[in-house]
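So, could you explain this one?
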Amino acid sequence: MTEIELEKVEQKMNMKDLANLLHSALFSLERAIQETNSRTSMVITSHSCKFLDKIEEKKGSKLFSSKSIEEAIKNFVEFTSGSDFFEHVEFKKIGDEEYLFKIDGCMLAKSGVHDTLDPKNDICPIALVAGAILKHDNPSSDVIVEPSKFTDTGIENIIHFVMYK
């Protein structure tokens, strides 16, 4: 194999590249919405939680097949923690309608995505999945995913789960 052929092989997209690209695309979309409509970004992004489960179910994903919120949260934490992407994921109820979602040791954050994009009022895409998991168990409810607190190794989010009676 020549040097030029070797360079072409090394330029193939891998999962890390794809994850970085999708994160960047979402953050770019959020930033564009923020610049044109201020806080509308949080409303639109949180509203997207109601569609994610349907897309995942169509793909055959098991993320949205739990029988309770507690089971769904447990399954999601087990699915993501200790993976190639996240060292530790925490997702727990901290109030009547409030949850903490936290990622430590995020491969994307450690690769420099957070430093490069410098997100301020953005929402981590994985926090959107956490919000969708809450919403799935109670379709008549709503979720508000607060903007993420980004660090060089992860994120922290507060997610409000609003139950309608």
User: Anything to note?
Assistant: The mean pLDDT is 79. The beta strands are 86-95, 98-106, 142-145, 149-150, 154-162. The helical segments are 3-10, 15-37, 40-47, 49-59, 69-80, 107-110, 113-117, 125-137. The longest strand covers residues 86-95.
